[in-house]
Amino acid sequence: MGLVNTALHIGRSALATYQSAMQVLGNNVSNAGNPDYTRQTSGLSAVHGPALPEGFQPGAGVALTELKRNLDESLENRLRAAIGNLESTSTVQRSIGRVEAYFDETTGASISSQLTEFFNSFDAVQNDPTDLGLRDIALANGAQLASSLSTLRADLKNLGDEIDGQIAELVTEADRLADQIAELNGEIGTAQAGRPGTAHALQDQRDTLLRELSELFDINVRHQSDGTINVYIGSEPLIMGGVSRGLTTEETVDGRFARTVIQFADSGSPVAVRGGQIEGLITSRDEHAYGRLDAIDELATALIFEVNRVHADGQGLAGFTDVTATYDVKDTAAALNSPDTGLPSSPENGSFFIAVTDDATGTVVAYQINVDLDGIDDDTTLESLAADISDTVDGVTASITADGRLQFQADVGLSFTFGHDGEQFRQDTASLLAALGINTFFDGRGAADIAVNQALSGSPSMLAASMVNLQGDGSNAGRLASVSAAASDLLSGSSVTEGYARIANDVAVAGANALDDFEATDAVLTALRTQKESISGVNLDEEAIQLLKFERAYQGAARYVVTVDRMLAELLALVR
Amino acid sequence: MALSPINLTRVSFNQQTTTLLESLRRSTLDLLTQQNRLATGRAFGAPSEDPAAATQVLQFENVTGRQDQILENLQHAGSVLDVTDAAISEVHGLLSDAHAIASQNVGALASAEEREAAAELIADIVDQLVTIGNRQFNGSFLFAGRDTQNAPFQSILGGVAYTGDTGDILARVALLEEEPVNLSGDALFGALSAGVAGAVDLSPRLTADTRLEDVARAEGLPLQLGSLVIARDGDPPITIDLTTADSLGDLVDLINDAAGGLVNASLGDDSITLTPVGGPVTVREVSGGRVAADLGLLTPDPTADPIESTSLRRRLTRTTAVADLAGGAGLDLTGGLTVTNGGTTATIDLSAAETVQDILNAINNAGLYVTARINQSGTGIDVINQVSGANLSIAEDGGTTASQLGLRTLDLDTRLADLNFGRGIETVQGQDDLRITAKDGATVDVNLDDAATIGDVIDAINAAADEAGVGISASLSATGNGIRVVDGTGGDGRLSIGRLNLSYALDDLGLSGAVEDPQTELIGDDVNTTRTDGVLTALIDLERALRADDTRGITDAASRVNGFINEVNRVRGVVGARAQAMQSRRQQTENAVLATQQLVSELRDLDYTEAVTRFQQAQTALQAALLTGGQSLNLSLMNFLE
Q: CB B4 to CB A527 under 8 A?
């Protein structure tokens, strides 16, 4: 009979369905504050039922036939990409902020003002070349500049190393996330087998992990029909169903720096990471830490060479009785412009002068030493040079130390100078003295080891201020001051001052760009998040309205059951 | 400000909170930035906040940093010039005093005793000038050129020697400009002689080691190296880059290395020769080049003949080998030199000299206060007399060394007009000037009307002797300087030379004080000695003339002293102009620094009005966000459910 079976069944279905719908709603409300939650909507539909005696079929009540996750998968993909970009740009922005702080161009202690001070102090020496105090200041300014460059380099090196360490940590984290995602994938596959829409909480968890993974690097997510996903880095798969290939790192040393390289754990093949914190860290490490470090090294090398080249052609207040080169030659039998020498700068075909002074009479005898490096016939080697000097120059012996440095020793009562022939200035056209580190201002090859030449640091009188070996002549100090603005081949035609300004400006521009990039990616992410929230987020007012609606429907169904019950009672009374 | 886009269909509870959080983040960040600006007074805290402005600030600060130093340089230069000016002013005063003293003693009224006393005063003035010349500033001798640690003036050899340097001390007065700030003792007092200019071009031959900077084309133009092309018909042309060459040897090596199959390059004494091998060649320029033409090697038409470069001049340097001199013939320096300065004579042995510097060092170390140096044009050696009031004579020591070096003060080529410090010799026109009386009593009368050089005088004597048939011969003395007259007559009398027709030629040729021993020869004096033509020489001459009671000498010296008063005025003017220039440069630089600082300030310093306004805005924005956020989050339908 229809009334007992069908009518009560209709009421029961409504009561059950609205209770379920209430649960869904309750779940929504309870997750209103959970940003990773995806709003669920109950899908209600009428139940097909038996025909009325009249032949019509009104249906057999209501049923919850679908539980919908309000999620746009394509938006989710874009969101993950945007998260990756934001993490990348914000990582770079933080790193460049630190680099900028190292450069510290807004205070008076910056390297650019130290460069100015350094070159200024040569002007002061030129004004009064015999004032040892002024010479001391020039040496102290040189030492300060050298130490600042070394410190800056060390800061950048430490930053790079630190970032490299972070990369390794993040890869471990990514590996853990990939494992978890693969595990969830398996669970979702099992749970959803034949019953889609049954593992929404697990999917939410997985989406959260995917977002966390995309914070580290860009991933592509492809959904499978069984509810599982495959995750790719570029075109290389990382997670296939319930299996993660795993990620690992390897430390490689390229050139001078140790760099962490990311690999797939199973095959050891390298991972081309794009986007995310890891890319941001790689960019920070390579461009902003090691890259700026390279630029500083280049600048320091140019500073050393350009200052030394001028200094080597000058004379101090006294001559040398002995001098040892600061740079060692690895292969003393190799042509001096060969890379086998391991010299920081390469001498050229040319010649230089040694002037020997008899300290008792002041008599100067100069000697021209040829440095044959034209690649024709026998080129000059360190050994042949030492032999040539010892042969040619009366009173000065040239020898090679055990570690490959050229050494000059004058006989008793004699001293020697470079860069003049006793009457006029004579340039070292071979740039040999600067290349070997004889009569130079700076020692070292780059920012790491730049320092004032030991031979000078204790004896300011040896600062080569003169070009004609007269104590009151400061013209070489003037030339040294001019190095500040002189074009250097090592800096592609910029001067040392310009070269440093360019590096500092690059940092400033990179900082501004990084901030702009961050703002732009942040705007994109915010827009996407808003869109996602607009689809997936819980609105409490909406839920409250639904609450009222379902409550009223439930009340109606209950009232209907009571009514049917009363009808049944009436019917039973007839029987009595 | 990237806040949420508002074309949305629905708003979630989360969205409301994140929007509020985002706007709070931005507002507080903005507030902090403005606060930071207001606290520091800077328009930007880090360069990345405004890279364009930061770049300019960095550039400007580099410039002002250098300019600050330049101001110090100018200040230093100014004070040196001021001290110099004060010293010159004292010199001027002393010279005026000397001139006054000389004027009082010019007339015949002054007695010998008075002149002796005046001479003492002049000697005192010379001493005072030496003191001024040795004046120190900041521990450096002001008038010593670049040799600032050694006193430049000292009394020696009966005069005053200047042993300082003549070079300029430079100070940077602009970023790319240096100006001299000193005045050497030479410029102050005219303390160095014009020198015995080497009369001989020592023309060293070309060698493989010769640096290209020491080589000039015949016109004196420097070599400017680039590339040239050597070609043979049928073969690809060969371009040779010569820019890496440092010496002539390199040049030849480069050509032979690159084009050895076409030509054989070789170095001659004054040129480079390309000898074609295996067929005619052409030598051309690279496009736009001019090396081949400069070297005189340009040969547009094929030739199989040797191609010789234009004649190349090698500059004389201290390291030039003696054997390379005289076009490669070398010099015979075995004879040595006899140098006399201020009455002191030294014999200089040059036999061991291997290079030019050995010659120069030997002369400079003789202790005679002379400076031997290579002349400006790099052709020979000059010897400068450092001593004011002393006469320098350079003569042979039995050989030909002085002549070969072109240093002999009295030589056959010496012009009579140059003798006696440019006074020349005074002859009697149309009449005989000298009479030489031989030992046998025969006489030779010599007319010097047509003589222009010492050689002419000697020729005239010999010609007159021949004509008279007297055994008299004249020559230049082999040892020392002076005309040597030898008597070959073998008589018992005395060889003597006397004047005729009141001619002064006898005195002017240095033959009046003739030596008598040995009896057969008579050697004259060097009448072409060199001395400095300066203030000190004039004063020393004045002093000597006063002591000698020599009215003509006093008059002469007084007029020279007067001339030098004008000269000192001129020098003072030069120094004053320099000081003035330094002053105006200083003013200009200060203005430039100020202008740059203003620019820096505009770029870097905070516009407070704007910053305060922005701070207010940020504050308002934060308040609004807090207010609206608090209220909208409180609104919920849940409030109305029972």
A: yes
> To the nearest 5 percent, what fractions of chain A are helix, strand and coil?
55, 15, 30
Contact A481 B4 (CB under 8 A): no
From the list B65, B145, B357, the residue facing A422 with the nearest CB is B357
Amino acid identity at A513: N
Cβ–Cβ of A113/B65 closer than 8 Å?
Answer: yes
* Residue at A184 is within a domain: yes
Q: Do A43 and A7 reside in the same domain of the chain?
A: yes
A164 and A310 belong to one structural domain:
no
Strands A364-371 and B281-285: unpaired
Query: Nearest to residue B551, comparing CAs of B103, B95, B97?
Result: B103
| Model confidence at B518: pLDDT above 90 | no
Candidates B50, B167, B171; nearest CB to A126: B171
Higher pLDDT among residues B420 and B96, named by residue: B96
Q: Is there a single domain that holds both residue A257 and residue A330? A: no
Average pLDDT over chain A, rounded to an integer? 90
R_g of chain B computed on alpha carbons: 41
Render pLDDT for A348-367 as a digit per residue (tens, 0 to 9).
999 999 999 999 988 999 99
* A335 pLDDT tier (thresholds 50, 70, 90): very high
> What's the domain count of chain A?
3
Do residue A268 and residue A202 come from a single domain? yes
Percent of chain B with pLDDT over 90: 20
Give the containing element (helix H, strand E) for A305: helix A292-312
Same domain, A17 and A140: no
| A77 neighbors A221 (Cβ within 8 angstroms) | yes
Contacts of B317 in chain A (CB under 8 A): 421, 423-424
| CB spacing of A130 vs B357 below 8 angstroms | no
Helices within B105-184 (DSSP H only)? 112-133
| Domain end marker among A254, A273, A293 | A293
Q: Long-range contacts: B548-555, Cβ < 8 Å, 24+?
A: B549/B112, B549/B115, B551/B106, B551/B108, B554/B102, B554/B105, B554/B106, B554/B115, B555/B106
Would you list the DSSP string of B250-291?
HHHHHHHHHHTTTEEEEE-SS-EEEEE-SS-EEEEEPTT--H
Q: Do A66 and A79 fall within a single domain?
A: no
pLDDT tens profile B425-456: 888 888 888 888 888 888 888 888 888 898 99
pTM, two decimal places: 0.87
Look up residue A67 and give its amino acid: L
Residue A436 confidence (pLDDT) above 50: yes
Does B54 contact A478 at a Cβ distance shorter than 8 Å?
Answer: no
Residue B223 pLDDT exceeds 90: no
Alpha-carbon distance B313 to nearest alpha carbon in chain A (angstroms): 19
Angstrom distances, CA of residue A30 to CA of A35, A544, B45, B268: 12, 12, 46, 105
Yes or no, beta carbons of A472 and B66 under 8 Å apart: no
DSSP of A158-215? HHHHHHHHHHHHHHHHHHHHHHHHHHHHHHHHHHTTT-TTS-HHHHHHHHHHHHHHHH
Is 80 exceeded by the pLDDT of residue B513?
Answer: no
Q: Are residues A277 and A378 in the same domain?
A: no
ipTM > 0.90 for the complex:
no
Which one-letter amino acid corresponds to residue B84?
A: T
Together in a domain, A170 and A41: no
Answer whether residue A334 is part of any domain.
yes
Contact B145 A472 (CB under 8 A): yes
Residue with tokens 């805005």: B617
Backbone φ/ψ region at B5: left (φ over 0), alpha (ψ -120 to 50), beta:
beta
Show the CA angle centred on residue A441, arms to residues A435 and A444, nearest 5°.
60
Q: Mean pLDDT, to the nearest integer, of A174-192?
A: 91
Confidence at residue B6, expressed as pLDDT on a 0 to 100 scale? 64
Q: Which domain holds residue A16?
A: 2-70+540-575
Which of 160-179 (B) contact A at CB < 8 A? Answer: 165, 167, 169-172, 175-176, 178
